[in-house]
Amino acid sequence: MERSFAKEIELLRLGKGETFHGEGILAVTKALLQSGVSYVGGYQGAPVSHLLDVLVQAKDLMGELGINVEANTSEASAAAMLAASINYPVRGAVTWKSVVGTNVAADALSNLSSAGVKGGALIISGEDYGEGASIIQERTHAFALKSTIWMVDPRPNLETIAHMVEKSFELSEVSNSPVMMELRIRACHVQGSFKAKDNVVAKVSSINKEEEPASFLYARLSHPPVTFTQEKQKLEHRLPAAQKFILENQLNEVISGDISSHGIIVQGGLFNTLMRRLSNLHLADAFGNSRIPILVLNVTHPLVPEQIQEFCLARESVLVMEEGNPEFIEQQIGQILRRADIQTRLHGKDILPQAGEYSAEVVTKGLVEFLSQNEPDGVNVEILRDEAANLTNIKISAQGSLDESLPPRPPGFCTGCPERPVFSAIKLLKEEIGDIHIAADIGCHAFATFEPFSMGNSILGYGMSLASAAGVRQIQKKRTISIMGDGGFWHNGLQTGVLSTLFNEGDAILIIMQNGYASATGQQYIPSSVKLDNQKPISIDIEKTLNALGVKWLKTIRTYSVDVMVKTLREAMTTSFDGLKVIIADGECMLARQRRLKTDNRRKIEAGLKVVTPRFGVDDEICTGDHSCIRLSGCPSLTIKPSPDPLRTDPVAHVINSCVGCGLCGEIAHAAVLCPSFYKAERIQNPGQIEKVIHRIRQTIIGLMTNEKSIV
Amino acid sequence: MTNKEITSSLNILIAAMGGEGGGVLMDWIVKTAIAAGLPVQATSIPGVAQRTGATTYYIEIWPERLDDDASKRPIFSLSPAIGEIDIMIATELAEGARALGNGFITPNRTTLISSTHRVFLTLEKMAMGDGRLDDKKLYAALKRSAKKSVMFDASEVAAQHNTIINAVLLGALAGTGALPFEPDAYTASIEAEGKSIEPNLAGFRAGLENSQAGSKRFGQDIINSETGGKVALNLETRVNQNFPAETRDIIILGVNRLTDYQNTAYAERYLDRLTSFAEIDSDLCRELGRHLAVRMSFEDIIRVAQAKVRENRFNRIRRELGAMETEPYHITDFFKPGIREFCDLLPPALAKTVLSWAERYGYLDTFYWGMQVRTTSILGFLKIWFLSKLRWWRPRSYRWSEEQKQIDDWLTLVKNTAENNIELAREVVELSRLIKGYGSTHRRGLSNFGLIVDTYVTPFLNDPGLLDGASSSIKEAREAALADPEGEALKMVLEDNGQREDALAAE
């Protein structure tokens, strides 16, 4: 794994009254332990990866608490785990990334929520929305609505987050429904503190096992005819129970204010942004006291109609602040008010933007617009308008002083990444045979969609690339190439892509990036990982798996061998074999490899053992500043510098110290017949005696010959 | 702390790239605030941006101690807001500029701490010529926009102290006094973190010193060429006598380069070629002097070999490796000459025969000798050294004869255009930038050069009244030729020109 959580694991052991200082998502983890969970599962993905990563590393503590931690192979298997809470009084939690994880989990979730739960079932969804998000922009909220899963959206401070985790389990149990907590990116990564409680050992767990399995009860199956009853139960029993609990436990908060003619209803997760904006508009102080009354929805589904009616009744207008679309909450509030015949004006996405994150700028402008339209007593709207205009002015003047716009700096392949050479090879092949339809996928290899490769015709989801080429290959004269990571392969690609293509005898090319980890999310282990820390041998192998399925054309190529890769790709594109052709591009994630090498080499140097460290370089004098090498690589360590030659103005290529000597520069110079300016240099530490002597002889002779004065 | 009532937090935004330790920098600041008993909150949006992309970290600190009373706890925001940043830390110049463009650096409030080094964007790096942003402009804009600024090359300072940039920037932050903590409070956080304490503390102290010393001069270009050597006295005299003062530095460099490349006689030939331009226009002569020297020292196998066996090169590479004087090291050089490069060295008649044979049988672009030569071994060194000693043969080679012909044609073109229009002549000189590199890159450059000459220069020479704005057209075409290797941009520009001409003809 990319990170060691040794310190964080200590945080998980804190007892009653001690202060937890740390990250939001780890506060959730701690709160799970305080809630007495019996099992935890999930699938990694920003921004919730740490929740599971820390538990996977905290083996001892999990053993003591009797918690079963499962690193599931997909969100679907994580969601299915929650079935334990259908039959047994056990609490469990699973986590994944936002709407994409929920989509994968959908089948199990629908069935789970129909059957209902006995023990508390909690889903932690990392709402990957807005700045920093890496996926399609949709709301998980929609899923909660249609499956009758309650949605918790806590105020983004650790105290509230931890409290709401504990309350979510209670809510789940009193209403027999699964609960989903959505945490936005910044909330997951927020550093703060809360007063911890003791961890709770579950009554039923891996150390307190049940004597007998639950007895047969048809009503617990999501299978007709009871599914019809279950639908009714959801609405007639579970929903009212949840609403009662929310009201009685004051999960939503009301903040009173002197401008009582107007009000704001806000998702808990947006509360801090709202308060800061009000404070800057002189309508609130820094401590949460507002002049405008606010209803904070820490639970955004279900709404409690009585609470909404009560908040709105005496007011001329309310503003609903709800991020993302459609505006489900606003629509429901409109319906609640209409049914109760309450005439309060309802604002929301008429004023605030339909799409996109509700950033500080957006909220300020929305608030000013709301107040301008309604002009409450005691508010000087003119001053507020100036504040809003000022924001635009600052940006305009800053951009004016820069005088040119900056291109974005997207993420890219790390120095020495084993996936980069594959795209160098594809680019070279394209120069030879023309453009190729490329089905891209989710994972680090998606960075090839950026410069300098700019490749990929579609991204359809994690592990979906091969499946997404099925319709294309019939309408293309040339073959298509699908790219998939080993993470995506096990997550989904094996089943949706490989099996489907074999079953349909499709003529397709699949490149599997075998780097050994789920690398983009922090190098979590996958089924085919070589688990070096506990010396487990590889038990599941991609090549063997494909052989067993009957893949006839299968080649494993070391990724850095660009020449061989180009040849293999050319063959795949042109061979008369018209079935599925798979190329396994084999090369361990360089981040993981370097971390291991660093420790190994330090140990070796200390022990006096020989260590050879390679790196690449460019001879300035030979480089003419055309940068073909960069257009085929894009490596962060291969950059440019001002030409040291005053007669040339174009910058020259330059390899910086972060180079790990992966060899790609040499391979590219070779495969693409570039310039001869690249060299590989190797430092030899702790050399043997003979090596030292040879070196001295060489140095002397070369020294004599390079010194022009002594020779020639 | 003052008695004035505090109504808002201190807001700190860090702009960094993945892998620079921005998260650790954030942690240090947070720990320092906690140790001082101040309420603090921090957050970030790392995601996949941690893979070398741009990302930000955001911290809010309430600048006074508060009772443990829950009713008076500040509500911290999770995202930075326009015009509300007290301290902006940027680990790189363009990321600082990005923060400025987003409205996070304002003259009434922001203390800016920014490193002045550049980590080039892929788009800047992959350009065929010079695609770099104007860093002097970025620097000036930042300097102008902040209330107070501390700007220096923190990356360089970090390298000097064998640490990473975050510790240096923490030191710089401490030096500004923008947060209510003494330097010791920050170092305590570094020590508490417990990792790489010594290098981090060294980086911190260096950052602190730089910050207190104020900003450094910016924009020194380091010129460090390995082709040293002295210019023959008689040539130096000739340059001083025959060329305007403002051209001499460049011409001396040219003389120097060509003496090293071939011999003094060849350097004299350079001066012969240039002399007639000295009287026409000194600007033209200076630029021509620059490009002519580069063209005359065309890249053949001998030149590559010369560069590969220079004594300075071995020392430089050893330093790059961080190897000690006595420590063994290896250098492996990559060569892949083809039939063309081989023929470059043959006598012209023989070369032409071989080339036409190779072309007929399709070997020209398919036959290469891939070689990896270990230049630090005696045998490997000898191979290259031998090639570098083939200078005497060079004037008899096919490549030499071709190059000299092309250079003379180009000079004639410059001369003829200069008689009519100096500006146009300058552009014809500048066109020579297209001809560079090796193999296919070199051929592409030559062919683009020819296309542009045929389209714009030749018609002008035939009828000087024909083309208004020819020089700006040439500039446009030259930039287009350097825009993409596929030649799409150049094709578009030339097509536009064709249509314009057709339209003119139709009138």
Task: Explain how this protein is built.
The complex is a heterodimer of chains A (712) and B (507). Chain A is an alpha/beta fold. Chain A has 25 helices and 26 strands. Chain A starts with 5 loop residues before the first helix and ends in a 6-residue tail after the last helix. Among the domains of chain B are: 10-213, 3-Layer(aba) Sandwich (Pyruvate-ferredoxin Oxidoreductase, domain 3), CATH 3.40.920.10; 317-396, no CATH class. Chain B is 55% helix and 9% strand. In chain B, helix 2 links the parallel strand 4 (87-90) and strand 5 (111-115). In chain B, helix 5 packs across helix 6 and helix 7 (183-193) runs antiparallel to helix 8. The radius of gyration of chain B is 30 Å and the shape is elongated. The N and C termini of chain B lie far apart (80 Å). The interface between A and B is large, with 119 and 132 residues.
What's the arrangement of secondary structure elements?
The complex is a heterodimer of chains A (712) and B (507).
Chain A: H1 6-12, E1 19-23, H2 24-34, E2 37-42, H3 49-57, H4 59-65, E3 68-71, H5 75-81, H6 84-87, E4 91-97, H7 98-115, E5 121-127, H8 141-147, E6 150-152, H9 158-175, E7 179-184, H10 185-188, E8 191-195, H11 226-248, E9 253-255, E10 262-267, H12 271-280, E11 294-297, E12 299-301, H13 305-312, E13 317-321, H14 328-339, E14 345-347, H15 360-374, H16 381-402, H17 420-433, E15 438-440, E16 458-459, H18 465-468, E17 481-485, H19 486-503, E18 508-514, E19 517-518, E20 524-525, H20 542-549, E21 553-558, H21 562-574, E22 580-586, H22 590-606, E23 611-618, H23 628-631, E24 638-641, E25 652-655, H24 664-671, E26 678-685, H25 689-706
Parallel strand pairs in A: 2-3, 2-4, 4-5, 5-7, 6-7, 10-11, 10-13, 13-14, 15-16, 15-17, 17-18, 18-22, 21-22
Antiparallel strand pairs in A: 1-8, 6-12, 9-11, 19-20, 23-26, 24-25
Helix pairs in contact in A: 2-3, 2-9, 5-7, 9-11, 12-15, 15-16, 17-21
Chain B: E1 10-17, H1 22-35, E2 40-44, E3 54-61, E4 87-90, H2 93-101, E5 111-115, H3 122-125, H4 135-145, E6 148-152, H5 154-160, H6 165-176, H7 183-193, H8 197-213, H9 233-242, H10 245-261, H11 264-278, H12 282-296, H13 301-308, H14 311-321, E7 329-335, H15 339-344, H16 348-360, E8 371-374, H17 378-388, H18 398-420, H19 422-430, H20 439-462, H21 470-481, H22 488-506
Parallel strand pairs in B: 1-4, 4-5, 5-6
Antiparallel strand pairs in B: 1-3, 2-3, 7-8
